[in-house]
């Protein structure tokens, strides 16, 4: 699940950068940032060495995603079609779910307060894409309209609830990921939005 | 003082986000970020677990501020009036003073160099609002025109001076907060500005 | 070399801020951020106290750079001429080389994976300027068109290669810095660019 998510996020970030006219380095940076940025900030927030820099697996997958995006971008100039395809949206929701569960796990391991666990689930899941948006000079789309971060927050809550009622860590993480994925897919189908204030 | 500051900062961030057309999640994120962002970056810079994630008090106060802002935003569509009211400006200056003093204290505890203590006072005080501005795609207002960060920098200097002449920590922090608050209120009354370069 | 780089980066950041109409505080922040931001994020990523806050030397040099920029800005309103001068471009390339080598060294010391060492070389070298661009609401120029980050990435690779073939640390760092400087000067002369995607 993590690998699917890293690929989907890297493709999304790279295509966004390509649409914005960045050069090859910029496309690679935004792809990697979208895939690994949330997890890196998560690790920094709990004062541990970022897995993205101390291991090679995640970065390799992210770079494969960048390469895939470059190939796709040359073949299909209309990137919107790729990003709106069912295959992409499902992969992206899988990533959202996997990242939220990982964030909740890391937060619990680090001894954070309940709020902190929920924040870490959301930061891990939507942080990378948000930073990529900021680098492109845009207000992150998750803050404006997409029902995308809310599943991650609710998933963090589900994780906490499962832990409180005594579920083992693995089950709690699975319940979190399941809820995030289901809510995200429902939100896409029903076009859910949060109200403006 | 800290609670007043957290509330004022959360209200300011939330109203700014509401004016920018963000949805409920975005309004909550910007409110929380404005209130807790400076302290979180301060803690990350000195390699300690962020108080915003390991405790529940600060986040609760920030969320109360967000809720307050949502109520205010629905009642009074002209947010400028709220943010220009005397009650808000005084609360905001109290927060600026409290946050600068906390930043200077944490910097001293962490064994930073004098520059580092002053930087940490300023980052704690104006970091959250600046990051919120960046997320909204704006140049942080403290970098452009407001006489807002300068009191925090000078307050950090006062803290250092008090420590050098042998004042106890509590007195140094109080002197820092007092100077920041007085300078900020004076700056508002006299419309002080720094020159452009 | 480090001092030359800090000065060049601080001047570049300050002049950019002055052109954007920031006030004196904003000019100082962007100058300091450009000079010290990359190294600070590097240190945070490997969980060590940022040298920019625990020592006084680097910050002093950065502030001298800011003061220099203020004097230059008042004398020569056309900052482009300063930033396009040969003296500035060489100093800036020296900084790029020194910062990339320092980043690679810190990454190796911290036990990062090979990718991590290369990323840290690039973050140290181009991070400060990129954050300054983001604060000004711009897409970082290194992501768009300049052949500026690529030398730092390649220099990180040279450092790794030198270590693998058994070169002592000092020699590896020197080789890294030499390659970065040479590639950057060549890129300027030949107007190299990366392709868009």
UniProtKB/TrEMBL annotation, chains A, B, C:
Name listed for the protein in its UniProt record: Trimeric intracellular cation channel family protein
Keyword Membrane: yes
UniProt xrefs under PANTHER family: INNER MEMBRANE PROTEIN (PTHR30506), UPF0126 INNER MEMBRANE PROTEIN YADS-RELATED (PTHR30506:SF3)
Pfam families: Gly_transporter
UniProt main location, coarse: membrane
Entry keyword set: Cell membrane, Membrane, Transmembrane, Transmembrane helix
Transmembrane segments: 59-76, 88-106, 112-135, 171-188
Topology term for the membrane: Multi-pass membrane protein
Transmembrane helix is among the record's keywords: yes
Stored InterPro entries: Gly_transporter
Species annotation: Halogeometricum salsisoli
Coiled coil stretches, renumbered: none
């Amino acid at each position: 699940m993590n690998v699917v998510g890293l690929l989907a996020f890297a493709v999304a970030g790279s295509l966004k950068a390509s649409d914005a006219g960045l050069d090859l380095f910029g496309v690679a940076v935004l792809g990697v940032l979208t895939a690994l940025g949330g997890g890196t900030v998560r690790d920094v927030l709990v004062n541990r060495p970022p897995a993205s820099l101390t291991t090679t697996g995640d970065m390799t997958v992210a770079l494969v995603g960048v390469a895939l995006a470059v190939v796709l971008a040359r073949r299909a100039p209309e990137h919107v079609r790729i990003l709106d395809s069912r295959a992409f949206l499902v992969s992206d929701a899988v990533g959202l779910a996997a990242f939220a569960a990982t964030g909740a796990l890391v937060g619990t391991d680090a001894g954070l307060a309940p709020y902190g666990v929920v924040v870490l689930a959301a930061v891990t899941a939507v942080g990378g894409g948000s930073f990529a948006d900021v680098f492109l000079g845009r207000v992150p789309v998750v803050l404006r309209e997409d029902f995308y971060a809310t599943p991650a927050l609710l998933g963090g809550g589900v994780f906490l609830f499962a832990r409180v009622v005594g579920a083992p860590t693995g089950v709690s993480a699975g319940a979190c990921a399941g809820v995030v994925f289901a809510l995200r897919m429902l939100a896409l189908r029903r076009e859910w939005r949060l109200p403006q204030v």
